[in-house]
Design brief:
The complex is a heterodimer of chains A (188) and B (556). Chain A is 48% helix and 10% strand. Chain A is α+β, with helices and mostly antiparallel strands and 188 residues long. Chain A has two domains: 2-84, no CATH class; 96-178, Glutaredoxin. A four-stranded mixed β-sheet of chain A has the order 2-1-3-4, covered by helices on one side. In chain A, strand 3 and strand 4 form a beta hairpin. In chain A, helix 6 (61-71) crosses helix 7. The two termini of chain A are 39 Å apart. Mean pLDDT of chain A is 82; it is low at 1-25 and 180-188. Chain B is of the alpha/beta class and 556 residues long. Chain B has four domains: 2-126, Glutaredoxin (3-Layer(aba) Sandwich); 150-359, NADH-ubiquinone oxidoreductase 51kDa subunit (Rossmann fold, 3-Layer(aba) Sandwich); 365-456, Ubiquitin-like (UB roll), CATH 3.10.20; 459-554, de novo design (two linked rop proteins) (Up-down Bundle). Chain B has helices at 2-9, 30-33, 37-50, 91-101, 107-111, 129-132, 150-155, 160-168, 171-181, 193-202, 223-230, 232-246, 260-275, 306-313, 342-346, 348-354, 356-360, 393-400, 434-439, 458-472, 478-495, 501-517, 521-525, 528-536, 538-542, 551-554, and strands at 22-27, 57-62, 74-77, 81-84, 122-124, 209-214, 250-255, 291-296, 337-341, 370-377, 383-388, 410-415, 421-424, 448-453. In chain B, the strands form three sheets. In chain B, strands 2-1-3-4-5 form a five-stranded mixed β-sheet. The longest helix of chain B is centred in the C-terminal third of the chain and has 18 residues, at 478-495. The radius of gyration of chain B is 25 Å and the shape is globular. Residues 1-18 of chain B have low confidence and may be disordered. Classes of the chains: A alpha+beta (188), B alpha/beta (556). Chains A and B meet through helix 5, helix 7 and helix 8 of A and helix 2, strand 10, strand 14 and helix 20 of B.
């Protein structure tokens, strides 16, 4: 963990230094079997980035640097490739995710009012994350489950035939857990 | 439980014959899973265990059963009765009904309709046009076999054609059969598959590559997902046969990351085939070997374009490059590469099994075989259908799909996704084949068919597709990168009621420019939704215009 380095060097620049100095082999041990499986081949960069993101939640600068070093690629090449594809994240994901499908069938069947209602309810715009890191609101261009349109995915669970009221009820359930300190206990 | 043991002991089913066993096929594809199909299957399995019926009632997961809009779906064998809208709460009642059925002592009792209905669902009448108008070639096993078990696929003849091909046919014979069948690419462009195979086969080179394009990015299309989820071995076998025909030893399946279940099913299928030596070195005792690797995309629509796809397989940014050289000459790592779409490859096995003439007898003069479509949007009965080429749009949308719900009249059918166009209701008699759709300013595309009723705003639809193309433009060439932004801006101006006749004229001038000067298919076809809505729904653009100095010119 980078933290231990930061503890050793508790300077104002510690965070930056910790990140920069994080020796890849130590910090990203879980990635090692994956790198080995793909023979550290530059051809497998996208596969490796996919699985890195799965392991660590997002592609941090340190992680990208580690991948670049492991595959003997310039960081510019790794970052350039990662930033090209929509599914790669460079910041930690929110604890909950709410993704509205924006494919043609969902659009025709009313995805726009769902997005509008969610923006108001969560008080964030599409593509944003709430300031406390609680929930993010995003859209996806077609999940291929068009018969279930309009579709909203909340924390990975695909919900079919959504309406403004059903989708608001679903995010309010997340909110109920979120409640202020002491009220987060599950109700009997 | 006593009645059940009595049933077991009773004379009729004493020696379990095939008909004394029932099978529940639960749709386990992504559409039904969104409606709770996994919980339903768990509930059924638990109910069977509680009643100790494991020997007599099999619960299996299968691929798409068709009318996805009514899911979760399940079918009950031996007679294949189909039920829609089944939930986990229905599980116990269904198994109780099946237990009762298994006590049948006479043929009449055995064959009587099941006295059970899902609480909130219904029995689906498979005599409706949605089912009777279909012709299943690509989907022949989809919904029948358990995609998780290679044994189920093999029982239905999987890898039999590969064995025949490798042991009895020359590569040239295989290419010739595909050529004579008249099969054309199902990814959208409709390039003759046999010609493509012959080109790659002729290329010099020690090592060649076969790529299966499973980057089904068109919104509103899920044919390839359904095939990969429901019958993955069909695609693997098609790839291996293609590899034998063109002389390739390495294969890649490039699949979009959004298709989680298809990825899981494919990974499992590749591993199963490898273990049984149906993929790998020295297949069926011949020197021919073929390996398949999965490459998962990371969300870039442009990667469906073949040169962008090649870059992505190589681990680079998915940007297209000018052709020639075509991938047939220089593809993955510069090697001669054959790229075919999932559905194209899924047609290979039936063509070899039944013969080129059989396949060529289905469809029209220029478009042979069948096409899988995804019927979605404002339609009563939506889902996955496979029809012979040449079927009219009206048959698919009005007859099979049973038209728009809520009595709102049908306005248009969108085909071909962001690269296609809208066909107005007045032209629904058009036959579904490559040439007829092209003549209307749209394309066959990969098979998405989104039905729109009169509540749909066509300018908004054009803007919707342009926003898609703008977001998905890779940025490499200026006409597409800047053109899609300008076109989207102009469409927004129309939507806001701020556009003048001059803006409309500019929109019309910019469309052909972007189409003609863009580097790849994305930019070349991006203006199509605008052009087709302008062609058939021009009044919706004109009605929004702000009075301006040249308003008269806009009414042209």
């Amino acid at each position: 963990m980078a933290n231990s380095v930061a503890e050793v060097m508790p300077t104002a620049r510690s965070e930056h230094l910790a990140g920069a100095a994080a020796p890849g082999g130590q910090a990203f041990e879980a990635l090692e079997p994956i790198l080995r499986r793909y023979h550290r081949s530059p051809d497998s960069l996208i596969e490796i980035l996919n699985q890195s993101q799965e392991l660590y939640g997002h592609l941090s600068d340190d992680l990208l640097r580690h991948v670049a070093g492991s595959l003997e690629l310039p960081l510019s090449r790794v970052h350039g490739t990662a930033s090209f594809y929509h599914l790669f994240r460079f910041r930690p994901p929110a604890r909950h995710s709410c993704v509205v499908c924006n494919g043609t069938a969902c659009e025709v069947k009313g995805a726009a009012p769902l997005i509008e209602a969610l923006e108001q309810e969560l008080r964030i715009g599409l593509g944003a994350c709430s300031a406390d890191g609680w929930v993010s609101l995003g859209s996806v261009r077609c999940l291929g489950t068009c018969s279930a349109a309009p579709v909203v995915v909340i924390d990975g669970a695909v919900r079919k035939h959504q309406t403004v009221s059903s989708v608001l009820a679903a995010v309010r359930e997340l909110d109920a857990e979120h409640g202020p300190e002491g009220e987060a206990e599950p109700q009997p | 439980m006593t009645t059940l043991s009595q049933a077991h002991a009773s004379p009729t089913p004493s020696s379990p014959s095939p008909t004394s066993v029932m099978r529940v096929r639960c749709c386990s594809s992504a559409g039904c899973l969104a409606g709770g199909a996994a919980e339903l299957r768990q509930g059924l399995t638990a109910a069977v265990a509680r009643r100790e019926l494991q020997e007599r009632v099999a619960i299996t997961g299968v691929g798409c059963l068709g009318p996805c809009s009514q899911g979760p779906l399940l079918a009950i064998d031996p007679d294949g009765t189909l039920f829609a809208g089944v939930t986990a709460a229905d599980a116990d009642g269904l198994i109780a009904a099946l237990a009762h059925r298994l006590q049948a002592v006479s043929a009449a009792e055995w064959e009587a309709p099941l006295a059970w209905r899902p609480a909130a669902g219904e029995q689906v009448d498979t005599g409706r046009p949605f089912f009777t108008r279909q012709r299943r070639v690509v989907l022949e096993n989809c919904g029948l076999i358990d995609p998780e078990r290679i044994e189920a696929a093999i029982e239905r003849g999987a890898y039999e054609q590969l064995r025949h091909t490798v042991t009895d046919r020359t590569p040239a014979e295989v290419v010739d059969t595909i050529r004579r069948s008249g099969l054309r690419g199902r990814g959208g462009a409709g390039y003759p598959t046999g010609l493509k195979w012959a080109t790659v086969a002729k290329m010099p080179g020690e090592r060649k590559v076969v790529v299966c394009n499973a980057d089904e990015g068109d919104p509103g299309a899920f044919m390839d997902r359904s095939v990969l989820e429901g019958d993955p071995h069909r695609v693997l076998e098609g790839m291996a046969i293609a590899a034998y025909a063109v002389g390739a030893d390495q294969g890649f399946i490039y699949i979009r990351a959004e298709y989680k279940l298809a990825i899981v099913n494919l990974r499992r299928a590749i591993e199963q085939a490898r273990r049984r030596h149906l993929l790998g070195a020295g297949l069926f005792g011949s020197p021919f070997g073929f390996t398949v690797e999965l490459r998962v995309g990371a969300g870039a629509y442009v990667c469906g374009e073949e040169t962008a796809l090649i870059h992505s397989i190589e681990g680079q940014r998915g940007t297209p490059r000018p052709r020639p050289p075509y991938p047939a000459e220089a593809g993955v790592w510069g090697r001669p590469t054959l790229i075919n779409n999932v559905e194209t490859l899924a047609n290979v096995v039936p063509i070899l099994r039944e013969g080129a003439g059989w396949f060529a007898a289905i469809g029209t003069e220029g478009s042979k075989g069948t096409k899988v479509f995804c019927l979605t949007g404002k339609v009563r009965r939506g889902g996955l259908v496979e029809v012979p080429m040449g079927t009219s749009l009206a048959t698919i949308v009005s007859e099979m799909g049973e038209g728009c719900p809520d009595g709102a009249g049908l306005k248009a059918v969108q085909t071909g996704g962001p690269s296609g166009g809208c066909v107005p209701a007045s032209l629904l008699h058009t036959s579904v084949d490559y040439e007829s759709l092209q003549a209307l300013g749209t394309i066959m595309g990969s098979g998405g068919m989104v039905v729109m009723d009169h509540s749909t705003d066509m300018v908004a639809i054009a803007a919707f597709f342009m926003a898609f193309c703008r977001d998905e433009s890779c940025g490499k060439c200026v006409p597409c990168r800047a053109g899609t932004v300008q076109l989207h801006g102009l469409l927004q101006k129309h939507l806001a009621g701020d556009a003048t006749a001059a803006d409309l004229a500019q929109l019309e001038a910019l469309c052909p420019m972007v189409a003609e000067t863009s580097l790849c298919g994305l930019g070349q076809s991006a203006p199509k939704p605008v052009l087709s809505t302008l062609r058939y729904f021009r009044e919706e653009y004109v009605a929004r215009l702000k009075p301006g100095p040249t308003a008269a010119a806009a009414g042209r």
